[in-house]
Amino acid sequence: MKKPKNKMGQVDFVLFATIMTLVAIGVVMVYSASSYTALHSKGCRYDDMFFLKKQSLWVIIGTICMVVAEKRDYHKLKKNTNFFMIVTIILLMAVFAFPDNHGARRWIYLPGGASIQPSEIAKYVVVLYMAKSIEQKGEKIKNFKYGVIPYLLVAGFYAGLVLLEKNLSIASVIMIVTIIVLFSAGCRKRHIALVLMLVGMAGVVFTVIEPYRMKRFVSFLNPWEDPRGDGYQLIQSLLALGSGGILGAGLGQSRQKCYYIPEPHNDFIFSIIGEELGLIGCISIILLFLFFIWRGIRTAIRAKDVFGTLLAIGITGVIAVQAIINIAVVTGSMPVTGVPLPFISYGGSALVFNLIAMGILLNISRQTAN
Asked: Which residues span the membrane (predicted)?
């Protein structure tokens, strides 16, 4: 006799709609923010829709992958966890075989101009490993030696490989999300406090030992001290946000995207949103992310097992941490660092892997304890 298939409920449509709304806004804003640069760039064939076409293609691929992931039972990921971990390590090391980009080696370049950023996979692989392992460990998670140190070592190893690529921002995201998952799993508060202190100290050390990171930190404190150098990008971002006012200058009417903000369709796209759509546009984006976080936490709480709960918390945490960091950087609330705004910033591999993770999250929402 055939085994009965695991019946699933309805997908969280509100969560799905929130994700797709953010993706749709991203497509529109990537075109708006990049059109001027693309139109006047030989590398973009003087085509104002160059980045729009590429981003739209990645959206289609990512959406298909999300739908496929949403249909597959998330429990099947358990048996492939070790495989994903090994492949991710290989990919993280493979980046050193390719040319650097502004001193950083973060990408594997593919034929046709496409590229993959393995660090985008590493964030979710660490979450997957922790969700599987913590479920098996049970109450041992409250023991610092057996329940905390192993996860710090594994997460630290992946974060270390990412750090070698000159990518402190994503390495930080990995460690912050690790702490979030450990806290959600029931680790003792004093253990979490100790981990926060250790991660914070590591962040300070890795900032101080790299001169360019130290310059970024100093410029963050007073960007007007070097307005043409390290403080330039932040000043231009603040000018964009300030000139947008309450209602904004109008979609497509940004001035700062005209070679003032470098690559405005990437990490600083939120400042273009502020200039064109104003305070209302910025608040709308923030509310969408808050709405996403709420539905993600709701999905985690309603999951039918520990594995699903921690996996949902980790996936939600990755998006939440990146969104918070990106918006904080653009508004001058923390030092400039290269973290894209999820679903909205231009980028192929980041969007695809984020949407695959969303498919897993949506699948968890279909399997609840109720």
From this structure: 12-31, 51-69, 81-98, 110-131, 143-162, 168-185, 192-209, 268-294, 306-331, 343-364
CB 81 within 8 A of CB 311: no
Give the chain's end-to-end CA distance (angstroms, integer): 28
Structure tokens at 343: 């679903």
Residue whose entry in the numeric block shows the structure tokens 């508060």: 189
Contact 366, 8 (CB under 8 A): yes
How far, in Å, CA of 280 to CA of 258, rounded? 23
**The CA-based dihedral angle spanning residues 90, 96, 101, 106, taken in that order and rounded to the nearest 10 degrees:** 20
All residue ranges of the chain with pLDDT < 50 are 1-4
> Do 141 and 186 form a contact (C-beta atoms < 8 A)?
yes
Helix (H, G, I), strand (E, B), or coil: what is residue 126?
helix
In sequence order, what are the beta bridge partners of 101?
104
CA–CA dist 106, 166 (Å, integer): 8
- Every domain of the chain and the residues it spans: 10-71+229-370
pLDDT of amino acid 370:
58
pLDDT tens, position by position, 165-185: 888 889 999 999 999 999 999
Q: Which of helix, strand or coil describes residue 177? A: helix
326-344 b/e (C-beta count within 10 Å ≥ 16 → b)? bbebbbeeebbbbbbbbbb
Q: Does the pTM of the predicted model rise above 0.70?
A: yes
